[in-house]
Design a protein that fits this description.
alpha/beta; TIM Barrel; seven-stranded parallel beta sheet; 10 helices; 7 strands; globular
Length: 274
């Protein structure tokens, strides 16, 4: 939702999220506690959460909220309903400044403090390695740089790390090499991929991640998305309904309620209309 230009009414968000909570996903990235000026679409996250709490649905799905600084983490951690805090950590200096208004080193200090908050409040921190497969800004990039930052973050006690193809630059070979290396080096961590892609090359990237041993995949219904801070609105998220169908050729995707998924798609078609 974050890059959608037209404000989605709070009631619509609640209805949509309630439907998604019944599909059977492990985690639902439902909102963010960041600057309302930066991401006005999600300025009502606390109200959305209040609505979800007041009209609960039966679900095993856990909620994840994105934060960009310690203040946001403290606010998000105050809600018992939230299980995960997500922080975008970029290996591109330019993008880290654009996305969180901080340098990479400053962001590492934020990660340390947010991890401390998570440990104190029984939350789990999910770190997204933004620009994990390259960047368009000319900043230094190599697989070795990615591995170095991943290792430093893992050393802080962060157990869930998602490799993000923020602007859709990754090649299948990159996805294979980087993902398999991280999974093999951190066998006791949960390693995922957050891939932005067009329909033209999404299958090759997902297959590469699967063959590398990845079993945590992010998606969005209808592929809606892209990062507004990266000016990649046309490079959307991986289409969730397509992703489920594709992965089921390898093994059954557990717990997915196809009827609830269909209802969520109907709502998505109503909300995300140009």
């Amino acid at each position: 939702m974050q890059g959608w230009k037209t404000f989605i009414p709070t009631e619509k968000k609640i209805e949509y999220l309630q439907s998604l909570l019944q599909v059977g996903f492990l985690t639902l990235d439902f909102g963010s506690f960041v600057s309302a000026k930066a991401i006005p679409q999600l300025a009502d996250t606390a109200e959305v959460l209040k609505g979800l709490k007041s009209n609960p649905v039966e679900t095993t799905t856990k909620l994840l909220a994105i934060v960009a600084n310690v203040r946001g983490a403290e606010e998000a951690a105050g809600f018992d309903e939230i299980s995960y805090l997500g922080f975008p950590f970029s290996v591109s200096e330019t993008f880290q400044q654009r996305n969180t208004n901080s340098s990479i080193e400053q962001s590492l200090e934020r990660v340390k403090e947010i991890q401390r908050i998570c440990e104190q409040t029984n939350k789990q921190l999910v770190i997204y390695i933004s620009m994990g497969f390259g960047n368009p800004y000319g900043d230094p990039y190599s697989a070795a740089i990615v591995f170095d930052w991943v290792n430093r973050i893992a050393g802080l006690g962060v157990n869930i790390i998602s490799l993000a193809d923020t602007v859709g630059l990754a090649t299948p070979d990159q996805v294979t090499d980087i993902t398999s290396y991280v999974i093999n080096k951190l066998p006791h961590h949960e390693i995922g991929v957050h891939l932005h892609s067009s329909e033209a090359n999404r299958q090759a990237k997902i297959e590469a991640a699967w063959q590398a041993g990845c079993r945590r995949f992010d998606g969005a219904l209808k592929g809606i998305g892209g990062c507004p801070m990266a000016n990649d609105d046309l490079v959307g998220n991986i289409d969730t309904e397509w992703l489920i169908s594709y992965l089921e050729q390898y093994e059954k995707v557990p717990g997915i309620n196809k009827t609830a998924l269909g209802k969520s798609l109907t709502l998505a078609n109503d909300i995300f209309t140009l």
